[in-house]
């Protein structure tokens, strides 16, 4: 089921005591919307020959595809192309710019691998255009060229979905509103058709394909109608560009030898044939809702994925789950704050390391100073000791010398005295 | 006014551009599109925000009550407010099947201060805050614009005091500051104080003053034929002279809202008495949606454009090629990362510088230390040398002395020997000459 955004919950409203006038707001909105005009882009996908162009012409009661503008099956292509035709149609004062996107060559090749890729690329490119236009600094009225609805034509094999069908729908259900249709339903009997529809819905559920769902309404009558439509899904259609007269009635239908398969309203038990259901649903009642779902769901998906890729820049997506509520700019702001904190931390760390190193170095310097001091002291002491020793030695020497010298003097004196005496004696003694 | 007409046809033309018109051969049914759109809007509910700017006591709250036929909350304010504040209240109203979320914002204390230079600032700030909130929501990665409660101001009712002469300078200044941010609808408040003739002159004076000062007030749109006529007529009645009242007075056999004076009764909804009905018609019944649209497509876009340009976003690169969103964001991001890295680098550089300086300092200190000790060492060496010299000198003296000593001793020894031999001789002589007396 496609998730729809919650609509505003109405709380208890005040009662007004008289006429104010804002009940006219819806008329104001009506007026403005008519003046603006409407846009709608419808994509049709399916193998050639399934009656796509006929159906489009029937749906819009116009020769969108004609001899001058041939439909996709007439334009034989080697590879899948995606082409668009734009027409302007007016009705009841309302102007609608209708863009039909078709895919000639889809499913027609022998090897159809990746034939959905051009389709995906087209849808994404329209989203991208819108995103870029929305993100400009100078914005102007943005034309809405996004694909609002994709009609997928299933061949009426009667058995079930083909692998290509399943693959295509799986790949596109997240990007666009997919409405599967059984084409050329006049080749199936009513019972076969019922079985076929059941089988298809079963397979769709098995493969978890999210086709377009009608929104629930509060109105009881509308809910009944919607439930009836849901039971008929996928719608089986018959298209015809030819008007045939049947029992005096002019109807659009296909003439066979065994009768006319009418496309228009067949009153059978009050049931309408699926074509009318399709037209009513697609154009008369749910066109706006298809646009809203495209805008609020598919486009927003695309946008958030795109922007997440830009801001996360390859970082693991699971880590950033919580950050998706911010805008990329807010995220940058937060990153800036983180960075400031990181820098502060780094700064304090560096500061610490710096201080520590300085302390270390200073300590070393101090130590070496102390060491040198010590050594110097020691040497000084050493020197002083030596000095003292020297002094002592000198003193001793001096003392010894003095002693000796005085001794010598005494001796000298003695000698002198003795020689004198001898002289005297000599003088005296020689007489003897 | 002309701009708007051009814009509308532009849109129509652009929509049809490249599209060929084809005729329809029957009723397809897409003429129900406007109804589908209307149904969706009705289901979703509408939202409208009014800002009332005016001096205290001009009857702003009363007028709101009268316009919306209900009593809104709030006490009448005093005149002693220190600054201008904005008080906003949100109400859920319903009329037939239409739900309206109405927010009424009142300026409190406007015009009460002695110095009113900054009066307009809080109003402008408030309006910008609402724009900013919307912009932030719009820029989020996962956004919910669909259910976002739009708080942007769609209409600003500017209350002019009924002096009967001209606009006050505060009015002109404020309106000039607001005219590019919000749709301004000027109204003459408490207009039952002015007589009819004075009123006409007053209106002309106000309009001419606004024009001459270049104040752009909201013009009711005339591009849609259904309402062009009534809108253009009303444009000529601006500014509306209004009277508000929540009290009812019996006139004839009806109860009407009116103000009763001794000399008569002013009926609020009587178009001869005041322009209240015109205001209600224009503001609510005819142009509410247009006011909302103008706010979104003109005022908000202007704010957004300025804000984005301020942040450095551009639409084209230097070669005038258009930027894609991704490129813009990536460019911004790269710039941002570059800035951060630069800051980091700067810090590192600063640190490296400091480290270098400190290292140089310490090296200096180390050098000085070594020099000091070199000097000491040298001194020490000198001392040592002196010591050595002294030692040597001593040794020399010692040696000299020793030599002397030994020489003297030798001599002495010789003398002694000679003496002793002489003595021996003498002794011998004595012996030989016993009569030699030797002593």
UniProtKB/TrEMBL annotation, chain A:
GO cellular component, one term: septin complex
InterPro entries, alphabetized: G_SEPTIN_dom, P-loop_NTPase, Septin, Septin7
Broad class of where this protein is predominantly found: nucleus
UniProt-annotated location(s): Chromosome, Centromere, Kinetochore; Cleavage furrow; Cytoplasm, Cytoskeleton, Cilium axoneme; Cytoplasm, Cytoskeleton, Spindle
Keyword vocabulary terms for this entry: Cell cycle, Cell division, Cell projection, Centromere, Chromosome, Cilium, Coiled coil, Cytoplasm, Cytoskeleton, GTP-binding, Kinetochore, Mitosis, Nucleotide-binding
GO biological process, one term: cell division
SUPFAM superfamilies registered for this protein in UniProt: P-loop containing nucleoside triphosphate hydrolases (SSF52540)
Region feature (Disordered): 392-432
CDD domains per UniProt: CDC_Septin
Molecular function, one GO term: GTP binding
Stored PROSITE patterns: G_SEPTIN
Septin-type G domain mapped to chain residues: 36-309
Compositionally biased spans, kind Basic and acidic residues: 392-403, 412-424
Family classification: Belongs to the TRAFAC class TrmE-Era-EngA-EngB-Septin-like GTPase superfamily. Septin GTPase family.
Protein name: Septin
Native species: Carassius auratus
Automatic annotation (TrEMBL), chain B:
One Pfam family here: Septin
GO MF, any single term: GTP binding
Coiled coil regions, renumbered to chain: 326-404
Stored SUPFAM superfamilies: P-loop containing nucleoside triphosphate hydrolases
Keywords (A to Z) from UniProt: Coiled coil, GTP-binding, Nucleotide-binding
Septin-type G domain: residues covered: 44-310
Sequence segments annotated as region (Disordered): 412-439
Superkingdom: Eukaryota
Family stated for the protein in its record: Belongs to the TRAFAC class TrmE-Era-EngA-EngB-Septin-like GTPase superfamily. Septin GTPase family.
Protein name stated in the entry: Septin
Organism of derivation: Carassius auratus (Goldfish)
Chain's gene name: septin6
């Amino acid at each position: 089921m496609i998730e729809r955004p919650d609509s505003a919950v109405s709380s208890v409203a005040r009662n007004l005591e008289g006429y104010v006038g804002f009940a006219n707001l819806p008329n104001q909105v009506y007026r403005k919307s008519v003046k603006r005009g409407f846009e709608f882009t419808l994509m049709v996908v399916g193998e050639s020959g399934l009656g796509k162009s006929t159906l489009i012409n029937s749906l819009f009661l116009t020769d969108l595809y004609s001899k001058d503008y041939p439909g996709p099956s007439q334009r034989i292509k080697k590879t899948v192309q995606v082409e668009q035709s734009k027409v302007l149609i007016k009705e009841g004062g309302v102007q609608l710019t209708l863009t039909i996107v078709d895919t000639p060559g889809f499913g027609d090749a022998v090897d159809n691998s990746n034939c959905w890729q051009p389709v995906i690329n087209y849808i994404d490119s329209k989203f991208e255009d819108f995103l870029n236009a929305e993100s400009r600094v100078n914005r102007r009225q943005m034309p809405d060229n996004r694909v609002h609805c994709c009609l997928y034509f299933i061949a009426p094999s009667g058995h079930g979905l083909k692998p290509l069908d399943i693959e295509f729908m799986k790949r596109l259900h997240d990007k666009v509103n997919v409405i599967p249709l059984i084409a050329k339903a006049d080749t199936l009997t009513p019972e076969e058709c019922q079985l076929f529809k059941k089988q298809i819905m079963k397979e769709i559920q098995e493969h978890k394909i999210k086709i377009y769902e009608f929104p629930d309404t509060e109105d009881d009558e509308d809910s009944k109608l919607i439930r009836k439509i849901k039971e008929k899904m996928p719608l089986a259609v018959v298209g015809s560009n030819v008007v045939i007269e049947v029992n005096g009635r002019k109807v659009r239908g296909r003439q066979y030898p065994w009768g006319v398969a009418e496309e228009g309203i067949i009153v059978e038990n009050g049931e309408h044939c699926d074509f009318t259901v399709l037209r009513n649903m697609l154009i008369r009642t749910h066109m706006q809702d298809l646009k809203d779902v495209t805008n609020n769901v598919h486009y927003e998906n695309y946008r958030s994925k795109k922007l997440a890729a830009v801001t996360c820049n390859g970082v693991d997506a699971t880590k950033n789950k919580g950050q998706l509520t911010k805008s990329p700019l807010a995220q940058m702001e937060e990153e800036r704050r983180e960075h400031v904190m990181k820098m502060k931390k780094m700064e304090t760390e560096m500061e610490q390391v710096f201080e520590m190193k300085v302390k270390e170095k200073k300590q070393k310097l101090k130590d070496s100073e102390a060491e040198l001091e010590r050594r110097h002291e020691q040497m000084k002491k050493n020197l002083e000791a030596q000095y003292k020793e020297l002094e002592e030695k000198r003193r001793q020497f001096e003392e010894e010398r003095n002693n000796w010298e005085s001794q010598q003097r005494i001796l000298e004196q003695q000698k002198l005295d003795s020689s004198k005496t001898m002289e005297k004696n000599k003088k005296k003694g020689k007489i003897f | 006014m002309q701009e708007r007409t051009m814009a509308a046809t532009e849109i129509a033309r652009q929509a049809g551009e490249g599209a060929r018109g084809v005729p329809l051969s029957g009723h397809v049914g897409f003429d129900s599109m406007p109804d589908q759109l209307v149904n969706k809007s009705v289901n979703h509910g509408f939202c409208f925000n009014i800002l009332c700017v005016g001096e205290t006591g001009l009857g702003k709250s009363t007028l709101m009550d009268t316009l919306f036929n209900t009593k809104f909350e709030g006490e009448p304010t005093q005149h002693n407010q220190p600054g201008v504040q904005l008080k906003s209240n949100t109400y859920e109203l319903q009329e037939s099947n239409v739900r309206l979320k109405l927010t009424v914002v009142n300026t409190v204390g406007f015009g009460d201060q002695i110095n009113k230079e900054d009066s307009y600032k809080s109003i402008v700030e408030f309006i910008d805050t609402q724009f900013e909130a919307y912009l932030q929501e719009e820029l989020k990665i996962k956004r919910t614009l669909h259910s976002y409660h739009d708080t942007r101001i769609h209409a600003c009712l500017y209350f002019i005091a009924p002096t009967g002469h001209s606009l006050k300078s505060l009015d002109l200044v404020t309106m000039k500051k607001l005219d590019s941010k919000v749709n301004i609808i000027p109204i003459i408040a408490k207009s039952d104080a002015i007589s009819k003739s004075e009123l006409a002159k007053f209106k002309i004076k106000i309009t001419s003053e606004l024009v001459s000062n270049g104040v752009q007030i909201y013009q009711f749109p005339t591009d849609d034929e259904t309402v062009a006529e009534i809108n253009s007529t009303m444009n000529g009645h601006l500014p509306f002279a209004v009277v508000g009242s929540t009290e009812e007075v019996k006139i004839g056999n009806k109860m009407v809202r009116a103000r009763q004076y001794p000399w008569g009764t002013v009926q609020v909804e009587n178009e001869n008495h005041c322009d209240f009905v015109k205001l209600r018609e224009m503001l609510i019944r005819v142009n509410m949606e247009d006011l909302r649209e103008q706010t979104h497509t003109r005022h908000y876009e202007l704010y957004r454009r300025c804000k984005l340009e301020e942040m450095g976003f551009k639409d084209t690169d230097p070669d005038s090629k258009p930027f894609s969103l991704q490129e813009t964001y990536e460019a911004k991001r790269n710039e941002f990362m570059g800035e951060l890295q630069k800051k980091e680098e700067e810090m590192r550089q600063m640190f490296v510088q400091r480290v270098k300086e400190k290292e140089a300092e310490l090296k200096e200190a180390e050098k000085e230390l070594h020099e000091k000790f070199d000097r000491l060492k040298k001194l020490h060496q000198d001392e040592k040398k002196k010591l050595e010299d002294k030692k040597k000198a001593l040794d020399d003296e010692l040696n000299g002395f020793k030599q002397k000593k030994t020489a003297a001793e030798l001599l002495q020894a010789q003398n002694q020997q000679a003496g002793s031999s002489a003595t021996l001789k003498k002794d011998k002589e004595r012996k030989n000459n016993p009569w030699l007396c030797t002593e």
